[in-house]
Amino acid sequence: VQLQASGGGLVQPGGSLRLSCVVSGIIFKNRSYSWYRQAPGKQREFVATISTAGSARYADFVQGRFAISRDNAKKTVYLQMSSLKPEDTAKYYCTDLIGKFPSGSWGQGTLVTVSS
């Protein structure tokens, strides 16, 4: 599987970004997907997941600010982020799930920097 994340960048606190993850090499519609992030010096942490049926689940720190979605026709997973905070600064990765767990394929990630 290949996962190509994009959409990161520099944004001011309170701003918004939409991350995209284009997936290839697997039957997209048959998998659930998650976004994770890793800040400098910290472990990778779960952000959000979306099931094959479109059900979403979020980490507690999201607090209604992010929305994960998927487009099966485009084989793409999205993460719409709003009300961004400096502590959201991290490299964001998407991954497919096997069962409830990441497959181990991460792609290169996309860097989000929240700073004034």
Keywords:
seven-stranded mixed beta sheet; single chain; globular; 116 residues; mainly beta
Write structural notes for this entry.
- 0% of the residues lie in helices and 51% in strands.
- It contains no helices and eleven strands.
- Strands 2, 4, 5, 6, 9, 10 and 11 form a seven-stranded mixed beta sheet that branches. Strands 1-3-8-7 form a four-stranded antiparallel beta sheet, with no helix packed on it.
- Strand 4 and strand 5 form a beta hairpin.
Mean pLDDT: 96
- Described by the principal axes of the CA atoms, the overall outline is globular
Query: Approximately how much helix is present in the residues?
Result: under 10%
- Would you tell me the structural class of the helices and strands? mainly beta
Strand content: over 45%
Task: Count up the helices.
Answer: 0
Question: What is the number of beta strands?
Answer: 11
Weakly predicted, low-confidence segments = none
Largest sheet: 7 strands, mixed
Query: What is the terminal separation in angstroms?
Result: 37 Å
Radius of gyration: 13 Å
Order of helices and strands: EEEEEEEEEEE
What secondary-structure arrangement, pairings included, does this model have?
Layout: E1 2-6, E2 9-11, E3 17-24, E4 33-38, E5 45-50, E6 56-58, E7 66-71, E8 76-81, E9 90-98, E10 101-102, E11 110-114
Parallel strand pairs: 2-11
Antiparallel strand pairs: 1-3, 3-8, 4-5, 4-9, 5-6, 7-8, 9-10, 9-11
